[in-house]
Amino acid sequence: MRAPNSLKQEFLKKWKSGLQICSSCSKNMSIFERKKAIKLSADVAMASARNGRTCWSRALIANASKNDNNKLLVEHILGNSEFQRLNKISIMRPTMSNKRVRCKKILKRSCGTIRRVSKRVVPQKILASCVAKRLSTKRTQVLKSLVPGGEFMDDVSLIEETLDYIMSLQTQIDVMRSLANATELVLRSKNEQW
Amino acid sequence: MNRGSLTEMLHCTDMTVLERQRARLKSQQQDQFHHQQPEVEERSGYFSELSGVFSGPSHVSQVPGFDGAAAGNSMIGPVKADPGSENGWSEMGKILVPGFGFPGFEANFSISRTASCTPLAAAAATTTAEVKDKISGAAAAGKVSFKKRKHDKIQNTKVVVEDEIKDKRLKGCAEEGDSKITDQNNNNNNNNKENSDNNSKENSKVSDVQKPDYIHVRARRGQATDSHSLAERVRREKISERMKYLQDLVPGCNKITGKAGMLDEIINYVQSLQRQVEFLSMKLAAVNPRLDFNIDNFFAKEVFPACPPANFPTIGMSSEMNTNPAYLQHQFNPLQQQIVSCSGNEMVINPPDMGLRRTISAPVSIPETFLDSSCFTQLQHLLPSSTTWDADLQNFYSLPFDQDRSTTFPSHQLFTGSIEASNLKTEM
After folding, report:
1. Half-sphere exposure of A27 (CA within 13 A, CB side)
2. Which biological process terms from the Gene Ontology are attached to this UniProt entry (chain A) (predicted)?
């Protein structure tokens, strides 16, 4: 078991209510709109299943509720009192920047610099430690851009949050995959019946 | 006269005798009273101390045995009571030893019995340390008596007591991990053999030593000791500890040493997870045209038994889905080819990429996964122009195949995961 079942159930419950809201809001959606709605509701449900205790979930909710269209959905998934509480927290904290850095590019660029530096510089102890530090800071920045709300974390809390984020992502993926599989099974059985 | 005088004399002598007897009785009574009172006081004092030392109920039950041993030795002369509470045990040894060697041994034996019970019930490590030292004091007293009267039984019990103490000390070392207390214990052990007074002093010292609530940082040789670098070292240790947890959580991270490599791996893993979420939400969006999942039907039987069914209005699947499987197969074959060629192209374009080693395994397991998924037939219905869809699909699938490890997971793996993750959950 990757995560406790209670977390999965909580997530599923919230996700379900979010999906209900989505489907009641707009009937005719294209597949990409639907995908976006599903993803957003799943993310927010996961964040709220973590109960707003972690930084990344709060940041994710704050990011989601920035958009007016999504605000209703977020509010519904969280429940009203929870929403107010988290909004207060997010107001107190600095507002998250919405832009997403292209992480792959940065990674590639950093890889390039490694090669260049290692070719140019004669291996000395101080320089080596300098290079190592630069490498790790670059990767830390990339990781900060990946974890929601990671821009405002120090190193220790960043790694803790990453741990938690990975755990909850795994839970989310497990639930989503099982749902997809179940849907498939139902579809296949219907196809066979017909 | 004579008679009278005799009678007088007799009377006198009687009187004197009587008086003498009375006086003697009185004095005896007073003496006894005086003797008994301090004894009683002492005993009550010691017993209060005893019950103070052994706060647990099991120890109280052991105390009456000790009481009996002490009561049997009522012939012991009064000894002035020492007010120091920590000296109680060694004092007790002193009291009992000069009177009889044997009762002293008895008392020691009863003490050792009580002591053997104490570490089981003692909650705090410091209290066990205290008790241990008091026991060792008692053992020292037993040794004094042993020197006075060479008795085989006493030797046996002494050996037993010492063994017990050794065991407890080992336990204490394992529990506390604090070098200070163990060092003092060792000192105690050495001092015990010489002097019991020293021991009592040591006792008071040890009882003062509490388990520290601050983080213990030790600078090695050549390391800086100012507060900044110490704090920095603590921070680094914290980070490396969390990194170890992450190493357990992220698959394939065990063999990599170095922070940069591990961060790389973690970044890749997080990216892959996020892409999996994207992919799965896309899949679900493709399967369900109205965002209505009759989740309760799916999960009531199989996965989530605790979810109450029939909360959600179950709306049947749309009638678009009645395509026969042969058509489905037909539709999928070109799709597979596209996927394979797509990943093949990537392999040609940038072979030195690290992510490609994982991509190679992708075409093997992907077709099975996607053959099962009947979602793509629906796409054909939904999207009028198939050319745009193909382009989209290519874009979409070239993404997760790049560094995705979703392909290594079997598709039917519902809720099997690593056990370390649950461990980690508890630690967090």
Report:
1. 0
2. regulation of DNA-templated transcription
